[in-house]
Amino acid sequence: MTHKTRHAFLRYGLCFLLLQVLLLGSVFSGTVPGPSIQGVIVREALRMMVGVMEMRGSGIIDTGAASAPTTKQWKAPWGFTYTKYAVNGVPVELLVKKRGTPERLILILHGGAYVIGLVDLYRDLAVRYATISGGASVALVDYRIAPEYTFPAALEDAETVWNWLLKQGYREENIIVVGDSAGGNLTLALGLKLRDDGRRMPKAILCMSPWADMTASGESYRANLYKDPMFGLLPWEEPRKNESGIKNPYAGGHPLDDPYLSPVYGDYRGFPPMLIQVGTEEILESDAITVYEKAKAAGVDVTLTRYEGMFHVFQIFGDFIPEVQEAWEEVTDFLRWQFRR
After folding, report:
1. 203 and 295 fall within a common domain
2. Is residue 64 a part of any domain in this protein?
3. In this structure, are 43 and 129 located in the same domain?
């Protein structure tokens, strides 16, 4: 299949699947066992896309990294102020909702496998977080990424911004740290670093599909290897030794079982309340389960929600998917409850 043919097949195939989503979304309502029809269609569209475009595994990350740079200037919507800072060389963006609760803050540590920088998707999510939290300010960190920078560069940048936020007058008990995928890794690592240094912890932690095991030792790296639509394999492919489907340039030769690099090896005593969300068809599912079990054993107030049939960071794929709606309702309840405590 030629490159042009693959593009045409992908384009028409996705249009057909989108039509099916819209039609079925108007027919099916309510709660049914297993994943929703809309969720299944989007999941399989993703599987087809990465297969046709030969982007399976690390390729989808390479594609994302190549397409991330843009010259477009993001603008905050009406009712928000948006300011950029450089904190000891680390770019930070602060979104403040007018007539909000500016003393409360959500710190976003973005995903992207440690090879993709801050993109507009997360600025849009910042608006969502500010709105659903009842008006909290939102800070975004454009931390250093691989391959130019390796561990512990991103962790150092996250801690630098944490210190800066405290100097700006934000208090630890009013900050919730959130992160997805590699950002979930960094969120957990920052918590471990603050705790190990004897410092006060954030109000709460939220992780979506955290990439918490760079050793790829969890059961889902095998059980979901042929299920994961983004990082998995096709039925006729043979896994290579220690196949995880996710490349890891950020480690830079550092031992992968370091808890600051693979938080599944961490000790969660003294952690604040946590919410972890993950899809049951992710290669990373066991990362979330292991962190949950270790946190629970350490006495942490932690919730793990496994969304049946869902894929990696499904929360960003549109509210027409019932699971996405449910996940964001759970996030809304978590944020508002924690900020009220």
Report:
1. yes
2. no
3. no
Residue 250 identity (one-letter amino acid): Y
Residue pair 290/213 in contact (Cβ under 8 Å)? The answer is: yes
The amino acid that residue 279 corresponds to is G
pLDDT at 104: 98
Q: What is the pLDDT of residue 243?
A: 54
Pairing outcome for strands 204-208 and 175-180: parallel
| Per-residue model confidence as pLDDT tens digits over 160-203 | 999 999 999 999 999 999 999 999 999 999 999 999 999 999 99
Q: What tens digit of pLDDT does each residue of 19-58 get?
A: 444 444 433 334 445 899 999 999 988 887 776 655 555 5
Q: Is residue 164, in this structure, part of any structural domain at all?
A: yes
b/e 159-187 (16+ beta carbons within 10 angstroms → b): bbbbebbeeeebeeebbbbbbbbbbbbbb
pLDDT tens for residues 115-131? 999 999 999 999 999 99
pTM: 0.87
- The kind and range of the H/E element at 164 are helix 153-167
Residue 69 lies in a domain: no
Mapping DSSP to helix (H, G, I), strand (E, B) and coil, where does residue 16 land?
Answer: helix
- Closest of 53, 61, 57 to residue 9, by C-alpha: 53
155 and 261 housed in the same domain: yes
Q: Which residue has the tokens 């993709």?
A: 116
Closest CA to 109 of 56, 175, 37: 175
The number of domains in the chain is: 2
Residue owning tokens 């919410």: 275
Domain extent, residue 140, equals 76-340
Q: Is pLDDT larger for residue 73 or for residue 141?
A: 141
Q: How far is CA 231 from CA 32, 58, 210, 246, in A?
A: 27, 7, 14, 7
CA 273 to chain centre: 18
Residues 187 and 281 in one domain: yes
For the annotated catalytic residues, the residue numbers are: 181, 282
Does some domain include residue 11? yes
Q: 154, 143 in Cβ contact below 8 A?
A: yes
Round to whole Å and give the CA distance between 88 and 164.
9
279 and 184 part of one domain = yes
